[in-house]
Amino acid sequence: MTLTYRNPSLQVTKDHRIELIESPVNPPSENQVLIHVKATGICGSDIHFWKSGAIGDLKVLDNCVLGHEAAGEVVEIGECVTNVSVGDRVAIEPGVPCGNCFLCSQGDYNLCEDVQFIGVFPYHGSMQRYITHDSRYVYRLPDNMSYSQGALVEPISVAYHGIERANLKLGEGVLVAGAGPIGLVALLLAKASGSTPLCITDLSQERLEFAKGLVPE
């Protein structure tokens, strides 16, 4: 069954065009939720898929809706969903792993080679009004967090993972290579971790000036 919601969507084509189309909305399966997307980010990967049609081995072989940094409101749930309810405000974790491989079984599901990652062909992403997603990979937002802030949970988690792997300690110096969005978040997280001194590099003087204004220290 196809639901009757209007679903304007932004897709990239295999010949590097961006199109605004009307996509079908499928009802959630027993373990899925249907989300009304309220905010979605534009990642550097979205630009690469548009301009170059590929990132390494990941290629756009046909039309694909972009986007993977998103938050929205749950409007329908599958019959087996128990962790969220209709009306909940949620952030989306974009990668749905297989759950069966060695990496998944040891907790490293982010490295799953069979991950279904929205916004990466052939899996349509969050630059559409409605998206269905596995309920295990959506997370309720606190009341004081906006949808725009919720859409930043995914990119912030990337930087946070790096901070954890670096095992930062109070008073240790940090060098962040690159003052793009992820680098800036890493800089903020390093500051929050008590790191000092803080240093960030980039080829763009404009980005460095922005970083200096963001974290004057």
Automatic annotation (TrEMBL):
Keywords: Metal-binding, Oxidoreductase, Zinc
Domain Alcohol dehydrogenase-like N-terminal per the UniProt entry, residue ranges: 30-143
The keyword DNA damage appears for this protein: no
Cross-referenced InterPro entries: ADH-like_N, ADH_Zn_CS, GroES-like_sf, NAD(P)-bd_dom_sf
Reported cofactor(s): Zn(2+)
Gene3D superfamilies: Medium-chain alcohol dehydrogenases, catalytic domain (3.90.180.10), NAD(P)-binding Rossmann-like Domain (3.40.50.720)
Short name of any one Pfam family annotated for the protein: ADH_N
GO BP terms, alphabetized: sorbitol catabolic process
GO molecular function: L-iditol 2-dehydrogenase (NAD+) activity; zinc ion binding
Amino-acid biosynthesis is among the record's keywords: no
Coiled-coil intervals: none
PANTHER family with a match to the protein in the record: D-XYLULOSE REDUCTASE, SORBITOL DEHYDROGENASE
Family from the record: Belongs to the zinc-containing alcohol dehydrogenase family.
Protein name (record): Alcohol dehydrogenase-like N-terminal domain-containing protein
